[in-house]
Write a structure and sequence with these properties.
single chain, alpha/beta, Beta-Lactamase, 5-stranded parallel beta sheet, 5-stranded antiparallel beta sheet, elongated
Length: 378
């Protein structure tokens, strides 16, 4: 269970949220202004802050959040903003100061309880991951000291060339972003799905909303320390671009754009490959279905041929028996037998032509069966 701070200058709303969260066995502290919030945050090991943006104070909830982050590591607690305003600009502002989500008033308690549980679980996993990766992080920083920005790009492009799927490709991009000292997340558009990717955690709701909203705003969108680069198949959102070093920020922007250009080209190839696989599968299914139909037709026509030949032979015997019973002269019987045999032979000759066509059909069915077999065996 978590240690939660609720900051809202309306005591009724604060009490409702406090009651709902305490029902989930959380420890809840309350504050109605910036001073109380900062004091409660310092005195208690707070895991999660629910912050009203529109405080009736000299500073906003965003400013209070920035003050709180001066007392604790940014990734050691979560902030959920609550406000009657939920425009894109408000969400970007919340994201900039470190928020993980933005809930519009009036607050649905069930939604709040679910989100709090999710972010507390993520926070616990992040703490465990931070402990287990402490040595690895130190080793990575040592290695990076001898690697320049161009080296990061060269290594990234080498790995991109060997990637065979979106997961591998996303991992390469996010690792390269991290190697540049930046934090970022991705929105990747596959053939029929959209994927949200982050290096060591899940993309939170606020990041997902910003990625989606800014995707159609051009190739590059930059606001203070936040930057988003968009390509047809991939968008990258970076939250900590250096603002006090314009040369470094410019190089990072150019390098990231170059990296995403290569990733977009690779994704184009992967998507086309997937599209071709789907088309081949559809063709195989069609061939399989067609083969089944033609096999049925082949069997039906062969049975019909046998039935026709048997019917003709029965007709010949019946008519010859009838002729014999008419007490005709030998010459008359021979004439009738000759005419009858000629007619029957003509019919049989036409059946031979049909038989040749039937043999060709049988060969075609066998070829279709051979084509369909490798696909249906999977």
């Amino acid at each position: 269970m978590g240690n939660i701070l609720v900051v809202d200058d309306q005591k009724i709303i604060q009490r409702l949220m406090r009651t709902g969260l305490e029902m989930e066995n959380h420890t809840v502290h309350g504050a109605i202004n910036a001073g109380e919030a900062e004091q409660a945050f310092i005195n208690n090991d707070i895991d999660l802050v629910i912050m009203d943006v529109d405080l009736q104070d000299e500073i906003s909830g965003y400013d209070v959040c920035e003050k709180l982050r001066q007392h604790k590591e940014p990734n050691s607690f979560c902030v959920i903003f609550v406000s009657s305003h939920a425009e894109t600009e408000d969400k970007i502002r919340g994201y900039e100061v470190g928020g993980v989500d933005y809930i519009a008033k009036p607050v649905d308690m069930a939604v709040l309880q679910a989100k709090v549980a999710t972010y507390l679980d993520n926070l616990q996993r992040m703490r465990q991951l931070h402990d287990s990766l402490a040595y690895a992080s130190s080793a990575a920083m040592t290695a990076m000291a001898g690697m320049n920005e161009l080296g990061v790009l060269v290594e990234a492009f080498k790995r991109i060339a060997t990637c065979s799927g979106i997961d591998d490709l996303s991992a390469v991009v996010l690792r390269s972003v991290s190697d540049m000292g930046l934090e970022g997340c991705l929105e990747v558009h596959g053939l029929s799905e959209v994927f949200l990717k982050k290096l060591d955690n899940e993309v939170n709701q606020l990041e997902a909303a910003i990625l989606s909203n800014q995707r159609g705003m051009g190739r590059l969108v930059q606001f203070k320390s936040m930057m988003q680069i968009n390509y047809p198949h991939v968008s990258l959102l970076v939250k900590n671009v250096p603002r006090d070093n314009h040369d470094l920020a410019g190089r990072m922007r150019d390098n990231l754009a170059l990296l995403l250009d290569g990733v977009n080209y690779k994704l184009d190839g992967l998507i086309n490959e997937e599209r071709h696989k789907q088309r081949d599968q559809q063709i195989a299914e069609l061939v399989f279905a067609l083969t089944g139909r033609m096999e049925q037709l082949d069997a039906t026509q062969r049975n019909n041929q046998v039935a026709v030949r048997m019917g003709i032979e029965n007709l010949r015997q019946t008519m010859m028996a009838s002729v014999i019973g008419m007490f005709l002269t030998d010459a008359q019987e021979k004439d009738i037998a000759y005419v009858l045999n000629e007619a029957i032979e003509g019919v049989l000759a036409s059946q031979q032509d049909i038989g040749d066509a039937q043999a060709a059909l049988t060969q075609l069915v066998q070829k279709l069966r051979d084509v369909a077999a490798p696909h249906t065996s999977h």
